[in-house]
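User: Quick sanity check before I run a bigger batch. Here is a single chain. Can you write out its predicted 3D structure?
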Amino acid sequence: MIIATTDYVPGKQIKEYIGFVQGNTVQSKHIGKDIMAGLKTIVGGEIKAYTEMMDEARKIAIERMINEAKRQGANAVIDVRVATAAIMANTSEILAYGTAVIVE
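Assistant: Done. Predicted structure follows.
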């Protein structure tokens, strides 16, 4: 599966536009990690537990988007974007979306 943030794939021609595809996940860390993260905000710096959580969530959302594109017969997804939103305290949604296409 080819993934591109542009509206084309360099060196390829879009044969067919299939349509919008997306994948998402909502993630949170357990209470122990939240307490440690809260303490980290006092002294500043990177909160590695949350960085890891968001990286994992991004990968899951993108994989789900790819799977949706495959189910629809695409071999590429263009105009890919990733968005995030807070759902509730210490919980985030990651959404990956784009346009499924067939390229040759």
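Helices lie at 31-43, 48-71.

User: Great, the batch can go ahead then.
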